[in-house]
Amino acid sequence: MNHKIKVHNPATDEVIGEIQALDVGEGVKAIERAKKAQAKWGQKSLGQRIKVLQRFKKALMEKADEFSRAISTENGKPLMESMITEVLPTVDITDYFCSKAPGILAKKPIAMRMMKYRKSYIHYKPRGVVYIISPWNFPFVIPTGEVVMALIAGNAVIQKPASLTPMIALKARDLMVENGLDPDLFQVLPMKGEHAFKLIGSGVDYVNFTGSVATGEKVSAECGKHLIPCTMELGGKDAAIVCEDVSIDHAAKYLVWGAFANAGQVCASVERVYVHEKIYNQFVDKVVSIVKELKIGDPFADGVSIGPMKDPHQLKIVQQHVENARENGATVLTGGYKIDGPGQFYAPTILVDVDEDMECVKEETFGPTMPIMKYSDIDDAVQRANDSPFGLNAYVFTADRYRGQRIAEKLQAGTVMVNAALMTYGLPETPWGGVKKSGVGRVHGDDGLRDLCIPSHVNYDLPFEISWNPFLYPYSHRKYKAFLNSLKAFWGQGFSDKLSGIRGLFK
Ligand code: ADP
Questions:
Q1: What contacts 114, CB < 8 A, 6 or more positions away?
Q2: 218-238: per-residue pLDDT in tens?
């Protein structure tokens, strides 16, 4: 039975839209339409495809304010964040792949080793229908960046938006269609998660999932069952290490932003901070003073830095983690409470006297909290940072950037930033993804675009292709012996080994 999805403004709790949910049958039909559209789109030249996406980019830039406002209304993040973390990176991702795709997807010759009398190259074919299942915390940039890349690569796209934020996804799709995209080529299907699950085995060719670990495990198992390649972008419990030589002002500014941007609802959020004991007190004082100055409230009001949380269920998890910390002896230096309604606001919270047994340090909080811990030995800090089932991003702060790189290389994470935080998803030229429970595969970067294609290998002959080839029939002992000697002649270790092989060949 179809239902309507009620969409709320998390700053006011008002209903801002009612979106018709689709059922599995409608989803299957959408995939069939997408397949037909892809057959035509995939035949177009890369240049023709890029032109359509360039029109989308131009239109998005003209409507940047309208889109930022729509994102803030539906998701609750401050208007400034809708601009810098959603609209701007979407423009940049589109711009990057429109200009770089011809190089990234150009035929790649491969130098032959053994068969020098032949040649090889890789060409990149579209996968077909790319299925994007997307979250509510970045409801515009996460899916739209992937949509743009998949389309440029010649695919059709089926997008299942998060049920908390379907409106901005539909708006993005409308803008693409208004700018010349075949409506069947990119379809947005608001529907229940359990219905979306059934579409995995219904004709899609690739799955790009961003969301929780629990759902990611289910979705990737289903992809395995149908042998569909997938990328999983899951949770994080990103650690920051602050060394004793650091500029406290610099580290504190970045880490407060890293922990509280988007009210902490970022998979790459700073979720735990390890500070050297020598500067611990000064660092904590600095961080608390910055956080106390942050304005929380209406995402559209001037000067507001922190908006509401989008998901009331997630807000309950934040409350639970803070209560668990309090019960186990943590001290709340600021925040630690839900602000009375309307709206789903939680005060930015600094926690000290915490340890690795507490939920706020062990589990993903995905909200506006920053637990701070002390360390005395850098190897111990690295070991504690790595002692997590997650590994999305990590952060290191030190005055010595080479020391920062050495520490970064020891951290188990898909991306480590030295002396900065949070900004790497918005770098389309770099790969994004995690290790351990944070996910499988990488999006963005040149390989991210190639991953949306089938790397197809062609091996071909040269004008002087030899018609006599020793690999072919008839077999004989003489040929066998020649191969034994060839092994030594070509792959032998050292001169004497090779020489004995060559001698054997001419015996
Ligand atoms: P969260 O809602 O905390 O972001 P989820 O992993 O539940 O994390 O959701 C991420 C996306 O996956 C959303 O679009 C959601 O609707 C969708 N989803 C939820 N359950 C399933 C499922 N069983 N199969 C496929 N998609 C799902």
A1: 490
A2: 999 999 999 999 999 999 999
